Amino acid sequence: MALLRVRVTSFLVGFGVAAGFALYQLRQDVLKSHEVLKESADKYRTGLEKRIAALEAQLAEKKVQQ
Description:
Oligomer: single chain
Order of helices and strands: H
Largest sheet: none
Number of helices: 1
Helix content: over 70%
Number of strands: 0
Structural class: mainly alpha
């Protein structure tokens, strides 16, 4: 019976350690993904702001011509 308890305890300790490493790795993956998405959104927003500024300039030119 004692041998079974030792084996179960060892299994649970190993499982706990492996789960800890898995959670750490998952956290790192989420942080990296967040950074990639943030950079992508910033790049898209910058391009969109440039396009809006160009359209506003064209609209201002047309209003001046009229």
